[in-house]
Design brief:
Layout: H1 2-15, H2 22-40, H3 46-53, H4 71-83, E1 88-91, E2 98-101, H5 117-137, H6 145-148, H7 157-160, H8 166-176, H9 205-211, H10 216-233, E3 240-243, E4 258-262, E5 267-274, H11 283-286, H12 289-301, H13 303-311, E6 315-322, H14 334-339, H15 344-371
Parallel strand pairs: 5-6
Antiparallel strand pairs: 1-2, 3-4, 4-5
Helix pairs in contact: 1-4, 1-5, 8-15, 10-15
The structure holds zinc ion.
Zinc ion (ZN) binds at residues 195, 197-198, 201, 207, 212.
């Protein structure tokens, strides 16, 4: 909020000398020249005005006294404070006062001089990027950020709360920041870090929501919740849908999650769903590797099956639909939706529902793990909107 106040002050100062109304423009110019003259003790040049507004404290600009409090002194202070974090300064190089954002760097970037409405947008955007990069660089809190920031669907509930229970809301932000209290995440003391249920591994969030086998039934339902949404969205014209069955006409014993068989066009569409945990030790350097690894594993698993069916004359495609356990929508899913002929309109809703489904199930798995209280009562209950009526422990 403090940064937004600085931005608002700078934008207001920019608007006044560039106002279309000549009277406002004249008053603003006159005032600015007057406060700058009092500061440096002589009539200012355009460059002096830019140095004054940039918060320059060198030489005559740093002398004591002479200043009167005004919009322009606030702008001077705001620019100086913001310049501690962003490469920003005022410039009069082009003949008129403007704000210069960015600096020349070896990568080929140059400073920009946004004008008009663009200025506010560009400054806010620079601040958003600054905070995002600070977050990504954090060793714990930045781990999952790269995954769920890839698509707006992963955070669709932020403003509206759509398809999200209050208990999911309380869980998901702490979980994505890696701040969920568990045995292995204690910073102090030498207490037992092992899992309180299986006792085999360190009790971290990835272990609880994706690896602790005691929750395997809930994983299955989380997986099925996402899978069922896709099955419902595939139109009947695509062919006959087989769910969790062997591929008809194949010798392979594999049972892909979804197989769509179009006999008339000899077309076979295989889709497997996976819910991996976001992040991982390499997530900081190389992007959402956990999601990519999940895709590669699925494609490798069905490579032989695809070859066999192609040899039998079927036009075969194998795809993986990946949703992170903390509700990250993977952009690599988009071609899968297209291949399954999901209507673009429903796809928007489906992405959000799938992300909310995984968040809901992961939250229930976590709370059940910690409290020992069963969080879902009957198959499918938790994965539907009706579950908001149940009373989960939080
Ligand atoms: Zn365990």
């Amino acid at each position: 909020m403090a940064d937004l106040v600085e931005v608002a002050t700078i934008v207001q100062a920019y608007k006044m000398p560039t106002c279309p109304d000549p009277r406002v423009r004249g008053i603003a110019d006159g005032q600015l020249c007057e406060v700058a003259r009092r500061r440096i003790g002589r009539p200012p040049t355009p460059d002096d005005l830019a140095r004054y507004l940039s918060g320059d404290l060198c030489g005559e600009f740093g002398r004591d006294g002479g200043d009167v409090s005004s919009l322009w002194t606030r702008v001077r202070n705001a620019t100086r404070r913001l310049a501690n974090r962003l490469p920003i300064e005022w410039s009069a190089a082009s003949g008129t006062l403007c704000v210069r954002l960015g600096r020349d760097d070896p990568a080929g970037a140059h400073p920009i001089e946004p004008t008009g409405r663009n200025l506010e947008w560009k400054l806010k955007d620079a601040i958003r990027h600054l905070y995002a990069s600070l977050l990504v660089r954090k060793p714990d809190q930045g781990k999952t950020f790269r995954c769920f920031s890839g698509s707006a669907a992963s955070s669709h509930f932020m403003r509206s709360g759509f398809a999200t229970r209050f208990c999911d809301w309380r869980f998901i932000h702490r979980a994505r920041l890696g701040c969920v209290p568990l045995n292995a995440t204690r910073r102090f003391g030498d207490g037992d870090k092992r899992c309180r249920r299986c006792g085999e591994h360190n009790e971290t969030l990835p272990h609880v929501v994706n690896h602790c086998k005691i929750h395997s039934a809930a994983w299955q339902r989380r997986h099925n919740a996402v899978q069922d949404r896709l099955v419902k969205a595939i139109p009947a014209r695509m062919g006959v849908i087989h769910v969790n069955k062997r591929v008809p006409g194949s010798d392979s014993a594999l049972r892909p999650d979804i197989v769509v068989v179009d006999e008339t066009k000899s077309r076979l569409t295989v889709v497997d769903v996976a819910i991996p945990f976001e992040g991982g030790p390499l997530a900081l350097e190389g992007g959402p590797l956990a999601l990519e690894r999940a895709i590669d594993a699925k494609l490798a698993k069905y490579a032989a099956l695809a070859e066999e069916m192609r040899a039998k004359g079927w036009e075969t495609t194998v795809d993986a639909l990946i949703v992170g356990a903390l509700g990250s929508w993977d952009q690599a899913n988009e071609p899968v939706l297209k291949r399954c002929a999901v209507s673009p309109r429903y796809a928007t809703l489906m992405r959000r529902l799938m992300c909310s489904d995984t968040i809901r199930w992961s939250r229930d798995i976590y709370v059940e793990h910690v409290s020992g209280v069963r969080q879902y009562s009957q198959p499918g209950m938790c994965g539907t909107a009706d579950s908001t009526l149940s009373a989960p422990v939080s």
